[in-house]
């Protein structure tokens, strides 16, 4: 028999050990994200542990949840906000069902409209999380987004040789233009964030707080790096990479549109892939894309293969499973945001972005 209880800091090592050995886990299940998000945006989090009823130290499942509550953006429990993956990890379907039932009860106490759990793929959604939703709860399972995965050879040289001549030429272009790439940590944060703010403004999206990146670099110091592409001392592109198991993840990447003729993004992505090979990773996760859109095709040219993401929504407010999120809802705000000065979006962005789960 298992019982469900909340996570405490005394559970840190046990939680992470469970995540590291679970075959359906991702980097975003690690307990460190609880501290990163709480420190950055002050959101309450509810990390749930399924433990053996007789031995409270024996973990049988975990469910990380973050509470996002805002008058404009709504009241939700999300696993995990800002990232592509999360959801329930459990030893068996019965434990998964118990974790989900507890989350539904918690959601009702908090008055949330819905609970969203993001899974790596169809096989990652526990059967126990597909049933027993409870009275008055409707569900919806979406797979309209994909993660783009590239299997890596043993060396960067082998990877370069596997590319078509056109792609190799595109990678060489920024080098011929005199661009350089640097990998580091906190010492590169200001340069990365300068690019990040402007790129997000151009996309019409509020930018994350620099503290989200800073806390990530500190919390996951052994596995996280920044990569920045420069023209002289001017940063033109940048990214964050986080390692977990045999995979290097790329949660954030940006480049300046006004320098696209120099192709800094090509050097940025090549440097990330080279870095992954040098550190012995077997796969590179390019992150989330919408099939056939521009970013999807850009990642596909590197040989990345789409793998559907499965996002489960449990609606507690009587809805029939209709979705009301995404850019479409805020299209007017996007247009306005793109016209704001970068200096303004740098101040206002984090105040808005921390309440948007995407």
Label this structure with key terms.
358 residues, alpha+beta, Aminopeptidase, 7-stranded mixed β-sheet, globular
Give a description of the structure.
With 358 residues, this protein is of the alpha+beta class. It folds into two domains: 158 residues, Aminopeptidase (3-Layer(aba) Sandwich), CATH 3.40.630; 161 residues, Aminopeptidase (3-Layer(aba) Sandwich). It is built from eleven helices and 16 strands. The strands form three sheets. Strands 10-11-12-13-14-9-15 form a seven-stranded mixed beta sheet, with helices on both faces. A five-stranded mixed beta sheet has the order 4-5-7-16-8, covered by helices on one side. The chain has a four-stranded antiparallel beta sheet with strand order 1-2-3-6, sandwiched between helices. Helix 2 runs antiparallel to helix 7 and helix 5 crosses helix 8.
Topology of helices and strands:
Layout: E1 2-6, H1 12-21, H2 32-41, E2 48-52, E3 59-63, E4 66-70, E5 74-79, E6 89-90, H3 93-110, E7 114-119, E8 138-142, E9 146-151, H4 156-162, H5 165-176, E10 180-184, H6 189-203, H7 210-219, E11 224-231, E12 234-244, E13 247-255, H8 264-278, E14 283-289, H9 294-300, E15 305-308, E16 310-315, H10 331-338, H11 342-353
Parallel strand pairs: 5-7, 13-14
Antiparallel strand pairs: 1-2, 2-3, 3-6, 4-5, 7-16, 8-16, 9-14, 9-15, 10-11, 11-12, 12-13
Helix pairs in contact: 2-7, 5-8
């Amino acid at each position: 028999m298992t019982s469900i209880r909340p996570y405490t800091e005394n559970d840190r090592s046990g939680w992470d050990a469970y995540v590291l050995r679970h075959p359906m886990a991702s980097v975003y299940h690690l307990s460190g994200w609880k501290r990163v998000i709480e420190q950055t945006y002050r959101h309450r989090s509810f990390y749930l542990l399924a433990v053996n009823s007789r031995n409270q130290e024996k973990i049988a499942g975990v469910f990380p949840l973050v509470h996002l509550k805002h008058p404009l953006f709504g009241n939700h429990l999300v696993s995990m906000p800002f990232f592509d993956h999360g959801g329930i990890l459990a030893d068996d379907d019965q434990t998964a069902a118990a974790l989900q039932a507890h989350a539904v009860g918690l959601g009702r106490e908090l008055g949330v409209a819905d609970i969203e759990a993001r899974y790596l793929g169809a096989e990652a959604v526990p059967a126990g999380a597909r049933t027993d939703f409870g009275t008055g709860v409707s569900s919806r399972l979406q797979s309209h987004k994909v993660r783009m995965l590239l299997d890596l050879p043993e060396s960067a040289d082998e990877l370069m040789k596997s590319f078509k001549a056109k792609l190799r030429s595109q990678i060489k272009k920024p080098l011929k233009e005199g661009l350089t790439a640097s990998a580091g940590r906190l010492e590169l944060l200001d340069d990365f964030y300068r690019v990040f703010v402007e790129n997000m403004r151009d996309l019409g999206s509020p930018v994350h707080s620099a503290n989200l990146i800073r806390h990530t670099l500190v919390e996951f110091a052994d596995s996280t790096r920044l990569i920045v592409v420069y023209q002289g001392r001017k940063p033109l592109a940048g990214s964050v990479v986080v390692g977990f198991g045999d995979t290097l993840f790329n949660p954030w990447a940006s480049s300046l549109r006004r320098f696209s003729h120099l192709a800094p993004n090509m050097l940025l992505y090549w440097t990330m892939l080279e870095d992954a090979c040098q550190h012995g990773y077997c796969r590179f996760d390019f992150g989330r894309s919408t099939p056939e859109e521009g970013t999807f095709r850009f990642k596909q040219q590197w040989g990345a293969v789409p793998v559907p993401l499965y996002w489960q929504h449990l609606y507690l407010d009587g809805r029939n499973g209709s979705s009301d999120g995404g850019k479409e809802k805020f299209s007017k705000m996007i247009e306005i945001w793109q016209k704001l000065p970068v200096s303004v979006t740098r101040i206002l962005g984090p105040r808005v972005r921390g309440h948007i789960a995407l």
